[in-house]
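Why does this matter for the project? Reviewers at the last site visit asked to see concrete outputs rather than summary tables. In response, this paragraph embeds two records directly. Each consists of the residue sequence and, immediately after it, the corresponding structure tokens. Nothing has been edited or filtered.
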Amino acid sequence: MTLLDRFKIWMGASLVVVGTAFTVSCGDDMTDDSYYTFTGEMLSDYLQNPEHDFTQFAEIVKRAGKMDLFSAYGTYTCLAPTDSAVSLFLEEHGYASVDDIPTEICDTIVCTSVFANGVYSTVDFSGITSTSAPNMLNNYLQVDEVMDDVDEYGDTIYTYRFNESGSIILQMANDSVENGMVHPVDEVIMASAGELPDLMAKDSTVSIYSLALRSCGIDRKLRLLKDPSWNWDEHVDRENLYHSDNHDNWCHVPEERRYGFIAFMVPDSIVREKLGLDATADNSTALEKLYEYAVSHYTDNLTKKYASTAEGMADLEDEHNPLNRMMCYHLLPFNTTREMLTTICTLDTRLVNPVEWYRTMDEMSTLKMETLKLRSTYDNSDTKMNDLFINRNYNDGTSETQKMRGARVSTMSGIKNAAANGRYFYIDDIIAYDDETKEKVFNTRIRVDLYNLFPELFSNNIRKQDTWTYYASTDKTKGIPGENFIFPIGYLDNVDMNADGDFIYQGARNWYWSYEGDEFNLRSDNNSYDITFRLPNVPTGTYQVRMGFCLIPSRGIGQFYLDGKPQGIPLDMRSNDDTWATKYGWKALSSYSASQSEEKEAMKKNLHNQGWYHGPLSVFSMAGSGHKDGQLSSKGDIFSNQHRTIRRVIASNYTLSEEKIHTMRIKSVLALGGAELMIDYIEIVPKSVYGVDTDGKGEDDY
């Protein structure tokens, strides 16, 4: 449990912090100064108190217009530069006093130094390479553990340095104020670099890929920071206490609409080796070879063909140019940390690897992210536990002809690869949405948590991995904001919705009956919601489309459509008693088993014929203590063993084309009294997986 979690428990109606220790080195005995102090002041009072050492930083806060904010209740962690640290900053930048610092720079200094989403002590910075939450600029800070001192026993004491600039002064750290915590730092912490293309252009390690992005004009697409038209004040009246099942959730409207990007960059050395170029070949030659490589891999109807390399090289900015498409396939349209690209929340990692599917900036393509947890998917010579791969298809059950190694994502993080609007990672192979990828990687059940469809959830820090969150207070000035959100019309791209409907996101909790802990709900006070959103693109073929959700008596009834056409009868999500299981012949599966008895296999097929599938065997919800993420406890609920966590077939034998945008529409049939329709995850399953005959091997239960 993090300090933030403990803080929420201790705080109650008023914040009280007493006698909680923090550790600055392993194995040391606790000393008198290893305890949190409590000042009884608000953050604003603390910074302005002449007994402390922050008078110049307080003036910077005033000039940034943030002092009133820091006088209100909330949860702030401030990495406050001391007076000497500010004096050093003034000298280095040629300012005579704080009054000479431009207002916008004052704002950047303050927002870089403050986390407005929780209270973090020094122990929360231990063992990490970047902060687990963003600062007020919505950026994550690089964290380096550096030597501070040696104790009387000769053991090294470490402190924490941020963005290769300010370090925490341990002797003064962990001062608790009424609305947060203060850590003095010895330098003004520098903000992350400006825009992502500029940061990558400075890295000589990836000069060929940077040149390709510029030559294709893609770098201009990576400069968006924030939607200036989004005005929270116009939508704040949507914030409210919404009833969900047997509890109430306070739902927030996002305060900003920030953009973000992730780039997967192949180092020059790997590109040259892949293309057969020696060190004497210049980058323009490498660019031509990279274009030729793209031509050989993009042969579908979407890719514009050229009569010669010279013709193609002269039209790289065309979105159908093969090199343009391949470079866009290396880009994701959101910003988050490497750790957030997959999650173990609710997954039994003894049975499955965490896998996610994301649409790339090559609009009609999707890539697979997989973190290796199972020993059947990695070996000591090539891969190891926790390696992150793009487009990998490799385990004990995969035939040699279907295996694909994929590209490994580096572990680099922090200011070195993080810009104001995104970050980049090295990968060890060129990736492409080519025939080999489509045939090997996508010939599987594609399970997509709904949050993956909306990049805004990542770039605006709405999607989190804190799986022990508590319900947010109805008073926005208290508690931990941001756990549940309601999205006004226009906030999410590729979503159309009527004005009467509410589209609500409930943040990840490992004790929810929800895949990966979070869920979306449709509701309406007027018995009328109607939403349409874009589905992930998959290779052209015949598929079964399913929806995973949880049966609850307070749910509603909705009609589903694909590409505007109604699919079957309306789906009733209200059932939750044994009569539902009896009606359809549902029975629990055998726990942890990849195969079931003949009787249960027959039961499964009967269920499938009626359009239902058990919940996944590899997914569980926490139900009591004795639980840890990634491993089911004896008190957990396995989704396959309770009929309420079920999957419904929306359409079978349905043709999807990689050249078209496909949509799902959900329209209310019964939503009286705010009855919800839950949308948890979508499965898009090729016929090669679901369409086996009676003698064939059926789809696995994971």
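We now turn to the second protein, recorded in exactly the same manner.
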Amino acid sequence: MDYDRLRKVEYNQQYIASMRPVLNRRALFSDTTKDYVNPPEPGCYEKVTIRFRTAKNNVDRVFMVCKDERYLLNKVDTEGEFDYYAYEFQLDNEKVSYYFAVQIGTLTGYYDTRGLVQEPNEYYNFVIIPGFSTPAWAKGAVMYQIYVDRFCNGDPSNDVLTGEYCYINEQVHRVEDWDRYPAQMDVREFYGGDLQGVLNKMDYLQDLGVEVIYFNPLFVSPSNHKYDIQDYDYIDPHFGKIVMDEGELLYPGQKENNQASRYINRVTNKANLEASNELFAQVVAEAHRRGMKVILDGVFNHCGSFNKWMDRERIYENAEGYEKGAYVSGDSPYRSYFDFKNDYKWPYNDSYDGWWGHNTLPKLNYENSKALFEYVLHIGRKWVSPPYNADGWRLDVAADLGHSPEYNHYFWKEFRKAVKEANPNAIILAEHYGNTRDWLQGKEWDTVMNYDAFMEPITWFLTGMEKHSDDFREDLLGNAESFWGAMRHHNASFAMPSWQVAMNELSNHDHSRFLTRTNHKVGRTATLGPKAAEEGINKAVFLEAVVMQMTWIGAPTIYYGDEAGVCGFTDPDNRRTYPWGREDHQLINFHKDIIQLRKNHEELRTGSIKYVDSGYNFLAYARFTRENQCLILINNEDHPVEKAVSVWQIGTEKYGSMEILMQTGEDGYTMFGAHLEVTLGKIHITLPKFSATILKYHKGAPKKQETAPKAETVPEVLTPEEEMRRKRRFIF
């Protein structure tokens, strides 16, 4: 137990409590959205207006504190229950980090990204990075991740054939039963999904409401996951088109891939490669025609032992039009791309450095190869440029690319320049675990896959499960304090341009399916079997998670099949096929409706976010702008609860109504549209068990209901303390 930390928290709470008789702390608000920083993505040397909100006639002075300098804000507006203060700040070309000091008489409180605090901490300061912007299309966009081999088989003629080649000491296998569970050693098993299948399902994706498709790797590779790239210049013909199909399969037991003539022809024949690239260009063009963007997966930390630069499998050794690989010859033009420990072992030198020691994943050696550096920058430009026109990159294990953090930062700065020069509207997002701050300073990545500030806190709160289903923590299940603590801490790493495009996932190809985590079973397919992943699941908890995903800041990203009820333990069980013909249509309809709801309410895409209330298994937060306010309530209890929630703090008036836009529960979801009365800035509501409720404020009296609303109102009961607070016109 960290007693020093507990004492500090207690002291901070006592300090804030000492200000309560005079300071309406719940009215205090600022962030770096467009309502509080204008322009929201300012250029270098621009002037920017910074705003702060307080309760009406409640404070004496508000200061912006930046580099130990205090700038007095002027009261510029009064609206409803709030005063707005502003200061016009002159930027240069350096990051601005600031917090606020709020004074009433001799008392001073400080306000940063955590809210009102006893003392500021630079880590939690608000941040503006002049000249840094992220693509407008990505802000709040609904993304859809496709693991291509498992999504849809649109062209059986390009399927990997059983015995076509050998991968990790065994021949590859074509799975004939689309609905079969993945094998425990799944990496060499292929179901046949391809880009033609994606084209065939474009109507489905558009109808679902998808705005961005994120593909797991598409480039030539021997595995189904394709994180061991064989040729960065071409889309794998097994995903694309095979127009020249010649050669023989390996005979049973044969393992030498230099004899796999069918495979060699398929992946080295330029007719197949060019046709596959053309098909990818068609996919992007069709997505664009439908208003969707496309993101590619870039695996630049390592390649595969099949890669033409290395050619450990001797695929390219005798193929026409290819140089000798570095494994084959010491005179290879690619020798410097890798770190060989033995310079006297050629031909067939296997002494190269592998990522985490895996000889199937040769580590790329950028520091010692200017040619490699330039070529990967060329690849970064190539795929976001005509004729392919992809809309950005997701970068695999991006922080591990070089041999030092210093080089990694240098490389990604150069990569960003190259990609943005080729396509200024492209996005660069990275896979990264841990603190993201150093990488998100406007010169490297735009954003990250949001594990620490989304997937993990939501998983722990709603399920108590670790994201691989490797542990269950009852102390974290329903623990709102831990949830908000994690969110406040990790969100502080983002400048707003990065936060608004962060990839917010519940599941993906590396972790168990969220629906499986709701059963609280600790284990993997190897220990429990795949059937266990489907047993004891709680769809109502999954609906809660999706509501949070679709109402949080960032880009909600659906892992293919989650919307159709797919379950699965962690890799490889999370890579089950999309269940065409066996979909959970209620879940699909739910996703369609909540995505459309998100699109219809701009505050849910790019508005501010604010903590409103919390308790055991209960969360209340708001997404709002000056003009529109939505409230989200999460009840993760196994029984209904009655709640009185103060909504004035999100910008509503003291009287009016809130419409229930959506409510989920054990029976699914409803968009009934019931209205709750707002009285003295508060609503009373009964929340069903395992439910999520989205409400929107409307001025004026509640509309008359023809039938009883799903969420019933309860009589208002005031404590003596509340009566006294209201008489003093302060609500805490």
